[in-house]
Specification:
With 467 residues, this protein is of the alpha/beta class. The chain is 34% helix and 13% strand. The chain is built from 15 helices and 13 strands. The chain has helices spanning 9-18, 21-27, 36-45, 49-58, 75-85, 137-142, 178-193, 235-244, 264-275, 289-296, 315-323, 345-355, 371-382, 399-409, 438-454, and strands at residues 63-65, 103-105, 166-174, 198-208, 227-231, 250-254, 281-285, 305-309, 332-334, 361-363, 389-391, 417-420, 461-464. The protein has a 13-stranded parallel beta sheet with strand order 1-2-3-4-5-6-7-8-9-10-11-12-13. α9 links the parallel β6 (250-254) and β7 (281-285). It is globular, with a radius of gyration of 27 Å.
Length: 467
């Protein structure tokens, strides 16, 4: 529901019903199927935990996705209520009443609707269902025998054949907080109570130096994990996990402690990295010069996006990157807060030449780029014929060089958006953002707009960096 839009009769009816949770829960049994999705959205946004728990229990569709819904403060409360309401289904030949919900997706995919259309999608092949794990619904539906999920035990009183598989998709952050601990305990209890019929599929795993609640890792199938985010840990702590993540799509590492680059653990990590043929995106934050240089030698050749921020990138490091097989496949390169001095301009031009055949997005924000450096790399930029977005905000550039850059970049027909820095003359005091002269900035914007009109590039949008 859009809070800014006028309330419809449906909105008013839903709000009225949710004002009394006891009545709302009782009304669920008579609620038409088409009403479940909007009613669920309102209950989730309103934090009606008892209603959510009951809705999950009797959900009339095969799948339920949180999708774009985000309520940060009460998120865990909502999720706990939904997990608590998740039913472990009896077998199809059982005479017991069986709810339809088989996939509960709490991974918050922004492109996902509340439930899949049964006209377009035949269950259990929901487009968000797990496809990599041998314990996924798709695989267990196809197999004649059931496969026990990780972290569960066999039970004579609960034979595998008596229960239908259910899938729970989540993102997990091991941040060491009490609140997270309670949520993870609920997950563990639910998996154990299912006796192998509940498949826990973790799409995003995030943890830091505290590495609390590591016991939850025993319940996870590492083959399900698509995104791994680690912060402030020793590299050896993640190498073993990385070797098991056979379908990892994105790797993010921040403040990694490289105790020694010659140790076996670093070499093992680099070997795993180079062999990860599903890895499409790497994000590195605050990585020291020498480890970064060695790491860039082992980038997977199919890499699609590389983010380097606050990293010590040397001349040699840029050269290593430009010679990497990955360089000729990169569509996105971000070097935010990586200093690109005049001394690095030559190697940076070489890098741009290597990525020019595929690069679509280039970000060199806050790189201390001066007029001389930018002028030197303009010819290399002009060869990036597929460039769609170019951001070089927050660099000390003058108006003279900015207009020169515009005249060159208008030749790039696919370039539609440029985020440029406010020219230095717009500040009354250098290095003081609060001294920005808005009148001067308006004049800059007007001049650039007029230049674009002259060369008939009204399809190209130039915007100044936010202050």
């Amino acid at each position: 529901m859009d809070k800014n839009a006028p309330a419809t009769l449906l909105d008013l009816a839903v709000r009225s019903l949710l004002s009394n949770e006891r009545v709302a829960i009782h009304a669920l049994e008579e609620l038409p199927r088409v009403m479940f999705a909007p009613f669920f959205t309102a209950a989730f946004l309103g934090g009606h935990k008892k209603v959510l728990r009951e809705m999950v229990r009797i959900w009339p569709y095969p799948c339920l996705h949180v999708g774009t819904l985000r309520v940060r403060e009460s998120q865990y409360d909502n999720f706990e209520a939904m997990i608590d309401g998740l039913q472990i289904l009896p077998a199809q030949n059982s005479s017991s009443w069986a709810p339809k919900l088989r996939i509960l997706d709490l991974s918050q995919n922004p492109g996902c609707r509340t439930t899949c259309s049964e006209i377009r999608t035949t269950f259990p092949f929901c487009f968000r269902s797990c496809v990599h794990s041998q314990h996924s619904i798709v695989k267990t539906e196809e197999a004649p025998q059931r496969v026990r999920c990780p972290g569960t035990v066999n039970s004579e009183s609960e034979p595998q054949s008596s229960r239908e598989p259910v899938e729970l998709l989540v993102n997990i952050s091991l941040d060491g907080t009490w609140r997270t601990g309670r949520f993870l305990s609920l997950l563990r209890n639910k998996v154990e109570q299912s006796f192998g019929s509940l498949h826990l599929c973790c799409r995003v795993l995030q943890f830091d130096g505290r590495l609390a609640h590591e016991h939850i890792l025993q319940l996870l199938d590492m083959g399900c994990i698509g995104h791994l985010k680690v912060d402030d840990i020793y590299l050896s702590q993640v190498t073993t996990l990385l070797a098991q993540m056979t379908h990892l799509h994105s790797l993010s590492m921040s403040h990694i402690r490289f105790t020694s680059c010659v140790r076996r653990s670093f070499g093992t990590f680099l070997t795993h990295l180079g062999q990860m043929n599903t890895l499409q995106q790497i994000r590195l934050h605050s990585c020291r010069t020498h480890p970064l240089q060695e790491l860039l030698r082992y980038l997977p050749p199919q890499l699609d996006a590389l983010y380097l921020s606050f990293c010590g990138l040397s001349n040699r490091g840029i050269t290593v990157l430009s010679q990497s097989p990955a360089a000729t496949h990169l569509r996105l390169l971000s070097l935010s807060n990586v200093e690109i001095s005049r001394e690095l301009s030559e190697s940076f031009q070489t890098l741009l030449a290597s990525v020019s055949g595929t690069l679509e997005y280039l970000q060199i924000t806050s790189c201390l780029i001066t007029d001389s450096t930018l002028t030197a790399v303009i010819p290399a930029l002009n060869r990036c014929s597929h460039l769609c977005v170019f951001s070089f905000a927050s660099n000390p550039i003058t108006m003279r060089v900015l207009t020169s850059l515009l005249r060159h970049l208008t030749n790039l027909t696919e370039l539609k958006r440029v985020i440029y820095p406010v020219p230095v003359h717009c500040y009354e005091q250098l290095h003081n953002p609060r001294s920005l002269n808005r009148q001067k900035l308006s004049e800059v914007q007007a001049q650039l707009k007029a230049m674009l009109q002259v060369v008939k590039r009204n399809d190209m949008r130039w915007t100044s960096s936010p202050e």
